[in-house]
Amino acid sequence: MSAHCQLTGARPGFGNKISHSHRRTSRRFDPNIQSKRYWLPSENRYVRLRLSARGIKTVDVIGVEAAVARIRARGERV
């Protein structure tokens, strides 16, 4: 699976590694993706979401129902 957050949409960024001699090679900055299981009371089931650390904090603030609604509004399956 790709390294992206289902809630915030965070995806890898790209840049350069710069060595001591200042040679540049490509590198990738991956978001901190975690797989987290939440109880969804409206559907009486658990849902497993792939979220970044920022996405987990967002779920803590807005609640899992609102978070799942946002994910579904983006067209992703939950």
Q: How would you describe this protein?
A:
It is built from 2 helices and 4 strands, in the order ββββαα. The protein is elongated. A hairpin with a 5-residue loop joins β1 and β2. α1 packs across α2. The two termini are 15 Å apart. It has 78 residues and is α+β, with helices and mostly antiparallel strands.
Report the total helices.
2
Are there runs of 5+ residues with pLDDT below 50, and where? none
Class based on secondary structure composition and strand pairing = alpha+beta
**For the CA atoms, what is the radius of gyration?**
16 Å
Q: Which series of helices and strands comes N to C?
A: EEEEHH
Largest sheet: 2 strands, antiparallel
Bulk shape = elongated
Helix content: 25-40%
Question: Order of strands across the widest beta sheet?
Answer: 1-2
State the end-to-end CA separation: 15 Å
How much of the sequence is in beta strands?
35-45%
Mean pLDDT: 96
Overall number of strands: 4
Question: Quick summary of this structure?
Answer:
The chain has 78 residues and is an alpha+beta fold. The chain has helices spanning 53-62, 64-73, and strands at residues 13-18, 24-29, 33-40, 45-52. α1 packs across α2 (64-73).
Features:
single chain, 78 residues, alpha+beta, two-stranded antiparallel ribbon, two-stranded antiparallel sheet, 2 helices, 4 strands, elongated
